[in-house]
Specification:
With 103 residues, the protein is mostly helical. The protein contains two helices and two strands; from the N terminus they run ααββ.
Length: 103
């Protein structure tokens, strides 16, 4: 008989078990990171829109009445009124502060 080398069934099952355990440990960490990325992106969008509110105030001499007015004046795009995670931005026209709307 020839001396054939290869993996036994037990060795293959052990490798499969190790890969399964690694995947089980890795998947929850990836979903948690995705939430953090969306939250940081939303904070950056709020800061950008707030800067545009300030630029509008410097250019026009008054605060915009809404984010729609800011978009119509081409200071922001229409899609910049919503974060990538679906949360809408809110704007307080009395003090000119941009925040994430509380749902």
């Amino acid at each position: 008989m020839k001396n054939e080398s290869g993996f036994t069934l037990i060795e293959m099952l052990i490798v499969l078990m190790i890969i399964t355990v690694l995947i089980i440990l890795l998947i929850p960490n990836l979903t948690d990171r995705s939430t953090q990325v969306h939250d940081k992106g939303c904070k950056a969008l709020v800061a950008t829109v707030q800067a545009q509110v300030n630029a509008y105030q410097l250019d026009v001499g008054k605060l915009p009445t809404s984010l729609d007015e800011l978009a119509n004046a081409k200071y922001i795009k229409n899609d910049q009124k919503k974060c990538s995670n679906g949360k809408e931005l809110s704007y307080n026209n009395s003090n000119g502060v941009v925040n994430v709307a509380q749902n």
